[in-house]
Amino acid sequence: MTSLDSPAPVIGPAERLNGLLRGELAAVIACRHALWSLNGRHPDTAVEIATFKAHHTQTVAALQAAVRALGGSPAVEAGTWGSFALLGDALSVRLLLQAEALGLIEYEDALASLGGSSRDVVELELLPRQRRHIAALSSILSGLPAA
Question: How far is CA 46 from the centre of its chain?
């Protein structure tokens, strides 16, 4: 049997939630970087991104608790998309928008493997929040000078 013939590993709910947790940890970092990049310019945009950061911080805590409730150990390291450098305003917001869009895809993909309260949180809270963030960031981006 070759490695191509072997079945894909089954990812349990705790591992799936840890994947989402890593994305949320990255989102907190990405928001922080975007705020640093704005450096006091565009105060309304900074307030909105700070709100997104607060949402992601709350989600980190909720996902950590959910992983523990399933008997797992919560991830402590962020995914890679949160580690972008300080960039121009529009580019920082565009990268944050792309990251939020990736988060939306991850949440949608996770639904099939989650059940109970974990599924409810993703479906009823996190997916709608991601969609709101994407809409708001799209609006913000349209009001910033091109990078």
Answer: 18
